[in-house]
Design a protein that fits this description.
The chain is of the alpha/beta class and 383 residues long. The chain has helices at 49-60, 73-85, 105-108, 129-132, 142-150, 166-173, 206-209, 223-234, 280-292, 342-353, 374-377; strands spanning 2-3, 11-12, 19-20, 28-34, 65-70, 93-97, 111-115, 119-123, 153-155, 174-176, 182-184, 195-196, 201-205, 238-242, 259-263, 266-271, 302-307, 312-314, 317-319, 327-328, 332-337, 358-363, 379-382. The protein has a five-stranded mixed sheet. The chain is globular.
């Protein structure tokens, strides 16, 4: 089925409590992806990327539907051809001809939340290409298109400016992105910047959301104001603030490369054993914070160490390779691998945490040249 979003999307802000973000391991209706088309994401290395996507879709359809966003009819035909040749059953795949700038749906797609006891809503956060790149206008419309297709209220999160100075109130309506562009309206947030346990606890980094001088998403918003936004729109009562993200991450600190919930009380945390590695101190500080952190009920977290692969380099640039960028689907857990001895170790650790799912390694040696892997490219649609 091909869908085209109408202009009748309802944009509201919640007036009563009841919005909560489910954990990734809770049942999905589907997974959303955008077919890769921007060759500048993988300069000189684009050709294998569609085949990596096809392999990922081949595993996802074993347990849920997959929605794939394509730019137009030509790109849909290319995607269909690749999927058929990769033996993907297209009966489980649905295409949507919507323009995108890039394919990182974790950050530009809608975050679907529960609304009260039975309903759902689609959160359309502001998107400004990580406050870094100039091409974001198509991606910034994707969340509203998803909401329209799913016939869900499209909720645009805003911070409470009622107690702020007039200048800050004006900024809340039109914030300047770090790339010199302006994004009007709602709070800017990428899905890769957060991870939740579905019970009220959330992981995030200060580097991504609070540092005041690099890739600033929301100038002038304080830690307390952000926490209030997360409580109102995600049902989060406890934010566990880690320090920084890994070297090579051009998002400036996304948490989905360093720490992830794997159960309501358990977190896997990336660790680097080599004291001479530039990630060693970064990850040790994050690990120390996690070991003293408590969940929404005041309970200490169970923390499991997840090794890092050896540094991955291409064209003299260190890439943000991490096993923590896995994706939890209904039937499988897809884990990025890098032809590294620690691939097997990471897969065994994650398999021990998901005995009810098949844990599969997906080679991401080429995909990581785009500075993201499996979690970055997927967005779950909870039931």
């Amino acid at each position: 089925m091909i869908s085209r979003a109408s202009s009748r999307t309802i944009r509201t802000t919640p007036t009563t409590p009841g919005l909560t973000m489910p954990a990734e391991w809770q049942p999905h209706e589907a997974t959303w992806l955008a077919w890769p088309h921007n060759r500048t994401d993988w300069p000189g290395k684009y050709s294998p990327i569609p085949w990596v996507y096809a392999e990922i879709v081949r595993y996802l359809v074993r347990g849920e539907r997959v929605h794939i966003i394509v730019n137009d009819r030509d790109w849909e035909e290319r995607a269909r051809s690749t999927l058929v040749r990769a033996h993907v059953p297209l009966g489980q795949v649905e295409f949507h001809r919507w323009r995108t700038d890039r394919g990182w749906m974790r950050d530009s797609g809608a975050i679907i939340v529960r609304r009260g006891a039975q309903g759902r809503a689609a959160l359309s956060w502001g998107f400004n290409a990580w406050a870094k790149y100039a091409d974001w206008r198509h991606d910034s419309r994707i969340a509203a298109r998803m909401a329209d297709y799913l016939q869900l209220a499209c909720v645009q999160p805003v911070d409470d400016c009622s107690q702020l100075a007039p200048q800050r109130k004006r900024e809340s309506r039109q914030w300047e992105a770090g790339n010199g562009k302006r994004v009007t309206g709602n709070v800017v947030l990428e899905g890769g910047a957060i991870d939740v346990n579905g019970r009220g606890a959330m992981l995030a980094t200060e580097e991504c959301l609070l540092f005041p001088d690099v890739q600033v998403r929301n100038p002038g918003i304080s830690r307390q104001q952000l926490e209030s936004v997360f409580q109102r729109y995600l049902g989060v009562s406890r934010v566990i603030w880690l320090a920084r993200g890994i070297v090579g991450d051009d998002t400036h600190g996304h948490v989905d490369d360093i720490a992830r919930f794997v159960s309501p009380h358990t977190v896997v945390a990336a660790v680097e054993p080599d004291p001479g590695d530039s990630n060693y101190e970064i990850l040790q500080e994050n690990l120390a914070r996690l070991r003293t952190a408590t969940d929404q009920d005041g309970r200490r977290l169970r923390v499991i160490e997840l090794p890092m692969p050896a540094p991955v380099w291409f064209r003299r640039r260190r890439l943000p390779a991490s096993y923590a960028n896995f994706y939890i689907a209904n039937a499988v857990v897809l884990v990025p691998t890098f032809n590294d001895p620690n691939d097997r170790v990471a897969l065994e650790i994650l398999a021990s945490q998901f005995p009810d799912r098949t844990v599969v390694g997906i080679h991401c040696g080429d995909l990581i040249w785009g500075l993201g892997t499996i979690h970055c490219m997927t967005q779950q649609e909870p039931r």
